[in-house]
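pls ignore typos typing on phone
1-deoxynojirimycin + seq
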Amino acid sequence: MLILTEFTLVLILSTRLCNSQEWKFPVDFKFGVATSAYQIEGGWNADGKGVSIWDVLGHNRSVLVEDGSNGDVACDSYNKWEEDVMMAKNLGVDYYRISLAWTRILPEGHGTKINPAGVDYYSKLINKLLENGIEPVITLYHWDLPQFFSPLGGWTNPVIVEYFANYARTAFTLFGDKIKTWITFNDPREICQTFKGLVGDVTPNFPLGVAEYLCSHNLLKAHAEAYHIYDKEFRSKQNGKISIIIDFSWSEPANASNPEDVRAAEQNVLFDFGIYANPILDVDYPKGVIDRIAERSKLENLPESRLPKFTLAEKMRIKGTYDFLGINHYMTTYTRAVDNRQVTRPSIEVDAGGERFSDPTWEGCAAYWIKVVPWSLRRLLNWIKNTYHNPDIIITESGYADGSEVLEDDGRINYYRVYLNATLQAILEDGVNVKGYMAWSLMDNYEWIFGYTLRFGLYHVNFTDPNRTRTPKKSVEYFKNVIKTRSIN
Ligand code: NOJ
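k done
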């Protein structure tokens, strides 16, 4: 007699799902591709555009960039946007995520002087996408801060909150009647931890262990202001959604049966992700972060914690400012607990503690931080579900880099196969509310301090050809087929 235990039932069910028609993306699940302004547009000073911190870095300090290049022309999408739309259409995507260059709209970064040519550029692009049945998803800030704010300390200066709010209101006014999905910020961790609120360690004496937190503090307030402006002044007419994208690198305990490792890995998750997510999806910074920085500040004989405090009113203003959660995911590490009670030069890395390392058997790619570890995507999705009451999630970036001009990009195909499968497992087996997945990126582009040395595109771009010719890689057919069949093959 066959006795069906709970375990065998689960096993039968998941095998049935894997092998059948039902192992498919739900009907309301949306696929997309993503890019950002500085990485693709070029036209850095075209038709009245103002200067951003990345224009300045690319011109004056391109020694910081692996191949000494800049984004002056990039993929030339400022001129080739129609072709980009056709490429997205060929893929059959529901979404095309772009970012606005703040300085193309407000060349000075502040005030009310709007650049009509910039408005025209984005209006044409948005209209073309809509005509072709593709929903434009707009990120307001994808790292190209107006240079005006640089001498003021960028995101570390609280005055920026109002300036960002002004820019956000301008964007909602100009484009909001056509846009249903807005993103305030892309990857606060990169903005505040990697770039310390400016770009690429510009100021050698930047106060580490302080700057990162000032940046996060102001960025979270700016996000909340933009959310409330949308909510109060635009939502009822425009009926869109607005949120933030937070990069989530997963930390796995080196030894899951060692409570110290488990605690250290969790602490890394809180410093990488929770520090931005918790004030929005719950309230205030995570307790683990507050306590740890207070403890280290005390060790350093400081009179108070290096982590700024939100007032009660600020906590309440930030809490709940999301209509869904955007997640970018690339990196996985193991974390081992280490004894780091000694006082060293403070930084967020020291505050986060633990020792991170990757498993040498994990498959890598040309970007050193990306390993092909799909189970970590499933884990972090479950972590969000369990920690924040199962919000709607859109995976707004996930991707794989080649280091050379590969057209037969089997590595990328395999990457999408296993990461999309992990996404399906999270949805169908774990009940996580994942509503969309966007590939990074539609085409090869300017990969920040790695210049053109890393290629993330589904489409190849020839950067030595003045025409910036685009050619589909093998992964185009693969991704297209996933979208068409709503299943992984
Ligand atoms: C995340 C960033 O949003 C994007 O700009 C970058 O190109 C990708 N990661 C790949 O590194």
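Confidence is low (pLDDT under 50) at residues 1-17. The longest helix spans residues 211-238. more later
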